[in-house]
Amino acid sequence: MSFNLALLDAKEKNKIELDKQASFIVWKMKQAKAGPEAISSQLKTIRSEEEREWFQSSVDKYKRVMGVL
């Protein structure tokens, strides 16, 4: 089954983008190319509390999946 992401509303597109950013930051941490400060730095750029919570939950999810402490 395929989905056309272009048809999603702006809020859903942003959630996907935040999830991708969280995945990338955790991957960089696993590769020792970034530290935990990368997460806090990214959190400071997010204005909405709801989006910050979404980003943090995505970070937590990818930390579990990738085995990053």
TrEMBL record:
Pfam families (alphabetical): DUF3283
Gene Ontology MF terms in the entry: DNA binding; DNA-directed DNA polymerase activity
Protein name: DUF3283 family protein
Organism of origin: Vibrio eleionomae
GO BP, one annotated term: DNA replication
Domain of life: Bacteria
